[in-house]
Amino acid sequence: MVETVHELRPKAAESEKITINLGFVDLGHIDLLVAEGFYSNRTDFIRTAIRNQIERHGEAVRQSVKRKAVDLGLRHYTRQDLEAARDAGSPLRIQVLGLASIATDVTPELARAAIASVSVLGALHASPAVKAALADRIR
C-alpha cells in the first residue's frame, strides 16, 4: 500500500538562526567547558549564557515591555484580524517582543491598509510580498 503525504501548511520555525564572531580565547574557553562536561556542546553553552543574561536583566525587560506596551511572546495576525482593523478605520501598530506572524492568506494590499507600523524585537514571519509592502513601516 502506497501512501501519499501532503503537507497542509508549513511548520513554523521554532527558533531563529544567528551568527556570532568570537575571539579564539573565548572560543577556547567554551571548548574547554564542553570537553569537561559542563555543557553538551557550544550551542548549549551559548543558549545558557543568553538565558542567564536575560534572567539577570529580567526586571529591566519587564519594565520596558510594560512601558512600551509590547506583546510578549508569539502574536499571530489573521486575515480576519487585519480586515477588522481596516474596516474599523483603526490601523494596527504591531509591537512584539518575540515572534510576530502574519497569515499566509493576507494580501500585500490588505497589509498596507490595515497595518500602520511594525516593530518586532525577535522575528517577523510574513510572506515576502507582505514584507515588501510593509517595508517602509517596519522599524
UniProtKB/TrEMBL annotation:
GO biological process entries: regulation of DNA-templated transcription
Pfam families: RHH_8
Family matches, as InterPro entries: Arc_rbn_hlx_hlx, RHH_8, Ribbon_hlx_hlx
Name of this protein: CopG family transcriptional regulator
Native source species: Rhodospirillum centenum (strain ATCC 51521 / SW)
